[in-house]
Design brief:
- The protein is about 35% helix and about 25% strand.
- It is α/β, with parallel strands linked by helices and about 250 residues long.
- It folds into 2 domains: about 170 residues, Rossmann fold (3-Layer(aba) Sandwich); about 70 residues, no CATH class.
- The strands form 2 sheets. Strands 6-7-8-3-9-10 form a 6-stranded mixed sheet, with helices on both faces. Strands 2-1-4-5 form a 4-stranded antiparallel sheet.
- Helix 5 packs parallel to helix 6 and helix 7 crosses helix 9.
């Protein structure tokens, strides 16, 4: 299905002591089902604000956000991964992963619990289900955080710089892991990142924003689908061409 997610002429203003500030101006883009899209742009341009609008946490001043043909609301089933894994240190990995089910009052739903176990087994965390977060590596913790989100079967997954707190080597490995899981689960995903290389390595398309008030400067299609691993994509001759193109876009004032 085309245009699974639609942002239509989105603008957002907020008020400060100095007056009204325009943060987003006429944002338009679509995301297809099962597509992986990244958003890049200058610091402070409003990338995370766009995720908050898609999640229904903020309301736009103008325009509308549609998911599967319906307006986004706080009740829309949307998954959100933050910069840190936010696992509770006093809960086991299994209990951390199940916390969404507890909040949704599905803790006794056997089908949901079986889905949790299946995900833990499928992605190598089942044997660590009774361990605590402090006993796991940073990469395994992020995998647990992703499984916690996926066990609720969200309609779309939003990722807000989920690898930024990791060291470079771990970041590359975890990026591969997360991309593999999202692809295998056929999950529609939007990643916000300041890292151009990261965006290119995981995405079907990259949306480039201007400085604030943010507008869509360009949308770049990344033709690397024949290479499954983000790490391997970085070795492709096309990779540097995409990097240079997006880098120039970000540096242009027009």
């Amino acid at each position: 299905m085309e245009n699974y997610l639609q942002l239509k002429d989105i603008s957002l203003s907020y008020h400060t002591k100095e007056g009204e500030v325009l943060a987003l101006c006429g944002i338009n883009f679509n995301v297809e089902k099962n597509e992986f899209v990244s958003i890049v742009g200058p610091s402070g341009c409003g990338k995370t604000t766009i995720l908050s609008l898609i999640a229904g946490l903020l309301k736009s001043t103008k325009g509308e956000v549609l998911l599967d043909g319906e307006k986004i609301s706080k009740d829309t089933n949307i998954g959100y991964m933050f910069q840190r894994d936010n696992l509770f240190p006093w809960r086991t990995i299994y209990k951390n992963v199940c916390i969404g089910l507890e909040i949704k009052h599905k803790k006794k739903d056997q089908q949901s619990l079986q889905h949790v176990e299946d995900l833990l087994k499928k992605y190598g965390l089942y044997e660590f289900r009774n361990s605590y977060p402090s006993q796991l590596s940073g990469g395994m913790r992020q995998r647990a955080a992703l499984i916690r989100t996926l066990c609720l079967k969200p309609k779309i997954l939003l990722l807000d710089e989920p690898f930024s707190a990791l060291d470079y080597q771990t970041k590359l490995s975890v990026c591969d892991d997360v991309h593999s899981i999202i692809t295998k689960e056929k999950q529609t995903a939007i990643l916000v990142t300041h890292d151009i290389s990261e965006a290119i390595s995981v995405s079907d398309r990259v949306i480039v924003l201007s400085k604030r008030p943010a507008k869509v400067k360009s949308i770049q299609t990344i033709d690397l689908k024949n290479i499954e691993s983000p790490l391997k994509r970085r070795e492709s001759p096309k990779f540097s061409k995409y990097f240079d193109l997006i880098y120039r876009e970000l540096g242009s004032e027009k």
